């Protein structure tokens, strides 16, 4: 666009009202030279938002990310350049090799460096690239790597993500913790681990994991989005508002980042911001899934773009005819349920199950209101029982079996709403502390015994143990465990 002063206006004081990408880019370079990397990255992000195909800006931001220690984000930008803008920009391979080396992914670093040497043997960084290859080529015998070991990270990450999506939370947590132990700067593993903790009910661990990412990888977009989701479900409205405003100033370049940001802001009710990013993807021909179309239609409708919302919804139905979703505007016209904690919802589900209110439980499953895998599978157990639910969540099974054990031992007790809530309060505390309790009968007996004694009802441990068909010693063990954590 040119510079912002003109020889035709030498004597005129010009107020800078129009600012193109070059304006922000040069301010970003100035901040970079002054070693203010955080400010430099934000300014160049804004420049790229205005000039998204500018490879010079993109590669400069990738370099800044590397210097800030954001190696994954740097490689994402470099891949974006090679795949979408200029496949002949060979120096990207050298920069990627350095990033992989910093992450400890030496096989990937070696591959990228080899590609650079092959594509541009006399390139600007050929000497540095040769040094890097020599450093990485330690010999397969010395390293003791097998082909499987070299691809270990990719395989584990894919497997952990699959476990997470299928609700096998504890298995996913174990694998993600292994990845982090081996690759302590692989931030996507931390973000997935935080989600796994959150779905398992351990909100504190989830947030601690996210704060670890943000401490070491400032401005990590996925971490910020996950934190916003956690605040939303905790009903921390002020923090949701503040973090939403913070995210409104972020300008993501990558499609995946735009989708994550747009969907997250839509989920928490910031339809204006969510529409901005989801519509930008739509204009680019982004091939989204049914969830993408759902949120795009939702944000369009609730920002006054009714006709566009209906056309998007029609497109979603044509591309995903089996999607059993209600239009978002109809869904929100229904009476909004009172906002309740997960403990309260679990108790309400159990009471509905006891009353045979299957339609209400099925409505919970059919609803588009976000639910954790644990909550979803617990409802399925109430509807179909253990044989018909095909449940993989050990937590859901434990909660179901514990409540059932108390109901079988003393039906009148579980008919008390307060007692029912107490059961699921204890269950949530167990999940929050990550306790691996397997004996539902022992847990049920301890919950029942503590409740009765707290309400000054005379009940011996021997009587309680007999009621639940366990030994007094097992009851004492579980009672002690609960009292340590309640």
From TrEMBL:
<keyword id="KW-0802">TPR repeat</keyword>
<protein>
    <recommendedName>
        <fullName>Tetratricopeptide repeat protein</fullName>
    </recommendedName>
</protein>
<dbReference type="InterPro" id="IPR019734">
    <property type="entry name" value="TPR_rpt"/>
</dbReference>
<feature type="repeat" description="TPR">
    <location>
        <begin position="21"/>
        <end position="54"/>
    </location>
</feature>
<dbReference type="Pfam" id="PF14559">
    <property type="entry name" value="TPR_19"/>
</dbReference>
<dbReference type="InterPro" id="IPR011990">
    <property type="entry name" value="TPR-like_helical_dom_sf"/>
</dbReference>
